[in-house]
């Protein structure tokens, strides 16, 4: 199955490394996990090697040895977030039939990730606000990941057009802009205003936006998906 | 003309204070202006009395004397931002005829403020992301201002229904959610992805969302507004 996401990082593919290296990688993973939690609350700019060392019960130099610099730590957190996002949102949706069912699957998993998992706030969204004015490698890493995800969505929209589920005059970039706006509004209202209606609002708006572009065949495909979901 | 925004702070209304007090207020205003610029780049959490003192060529204690605490400074910046937002977006739009022309005026000025004035990033949007996980008086001040603005928009939508410009079954909260999403997507794409198409995308999406809810009379009112704008 073709994917527009870059292949997994080599670390996930290679054969088991020697034990000492394995131990080092486990520590690195544990630090990264803690850093991801910290960044989702405090922002990527809120990440400090000192705070992280305290959280891990390690020395600053111990943490530093694994990442070399605060910037490298921030970039590693962005990559880790991206890998989790792929696992939770992207890959499962790829198992759905191409066309509107897959697009709906991507949106639904994205909604759940952003709204339900309140504790792990979206680093894509908070990072975009933190780094819109700050050029440099962290911003580049973040923008690259966001662009990869947007390209994947645009491709899912194009496939839905190719399948005959969306009208041929559907402009992928415009539809993507509008769907992304619903996710951003959901993130804002659910996390900042603590409005419990926002998940339902996002879903209703998505259905309306899609209905405005869907063909008869597309509506049938969505109905079949919904019937399958309720039968499961 | 009724407004749902709170009345201006008394400082703007009272008679001229004695000269020494006036001088103090001028200094406070100058500090606040600098703080607003700093916060729009670095975020409200990036505001420090030290950085501000350096920027103003003042001592830390000199800055401190005007605000008392970093938190009070942050809240003052939020209030200042809100006052400017009212002046640029809210009050001019209130001069337009109630109904869809006014709603379109609010949206258009909001778009310009968010997208064109790239240098003064939206503190409502960046603040929401910074403070979604941080309870306290700064978050409360920010959420209060955002809610005030959302209430004003919801009222403009309700008035457009009352004028017969939007269909009677239009749900203000849902339409508001969708329109707000367009602004958030615009902010994201214009400021973070540096995509020059995003203003046009936001306008096109707004026209489409409104068209889906507008009555014949509403469409006429919008055409008249557009004709008036091109004649000016």
UniProtKB/TrEMBL annotation, chains A, B:
GO terms for molecular function: DNA binding. Keywords: DNA-binding, Transcription, Transcription regulation. Residues 48-67 bind DNA. The keyword DNA-binding applies. Residues 25-85 form the HTH tetR-type domain. Gene3D superfamilies: Homeodomain-like, Tetracycline Repressor, domain 2. It holds the Pfam family TetR_C_13. It comes from the Bacteria. Residues 1-10 have a biased composition (Pro residues). PANTHER family: HTH-TYPE TRANSCRIPTIONAL REPRESSOR NEMR, TRANSCRIPTIONAL REGULATORY PROTEIN. This is Putative transcriptional regulator for fatty acid degradation FadP, TetR family.
């Amino acid at each position: 199955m073709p994917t527009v996401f870059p292949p997994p990082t080599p670390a996930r593919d290679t054969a088991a490394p020697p034990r000492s290296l394995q131990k080092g990688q486990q520590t690195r993973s544990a630090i990264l996990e803690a850093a991801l939690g910290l960044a989702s609350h405090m922002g990527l700019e809120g990440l400090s090697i000192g705070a992280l060392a305290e959280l891990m019960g390690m020395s600053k130099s111990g943490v530093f040895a694994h990442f070399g610099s605060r910037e490298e730590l921030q970039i590693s957190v962005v990559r880790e977030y991206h890998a989790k996002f792929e696992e939770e949102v992207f890959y499962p949706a790829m198992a759905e039939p191409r066309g509107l069912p897959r697009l709906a699957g991507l949106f639904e998993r994205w909604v759940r990730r952003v709204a339900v998992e309140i504790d792990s706030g979206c680093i894509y969204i908070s990072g975009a606000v933190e780094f819109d004015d700050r050029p440099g490698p962290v911003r580049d890493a973040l923008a690259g990941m966001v662009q990869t995800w947007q390209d994947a969505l645009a491709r899912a929209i194009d496939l839905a057009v190719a399948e005959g589920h969306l009208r041929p005059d559907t402009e992928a970039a415009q539809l993507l802009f509008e769907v992304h706006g619903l996710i951003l509004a959901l993130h804002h209202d659910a996390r900042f205003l603590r409005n419990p209606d926002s998940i339902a609002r996002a879903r209703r708006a998505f259905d309306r936006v899609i209905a405005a572009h869907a063909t008869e065949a597309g509506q049938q495909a969505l109905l079949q998906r919904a019937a399958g979901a309720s039968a499961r």
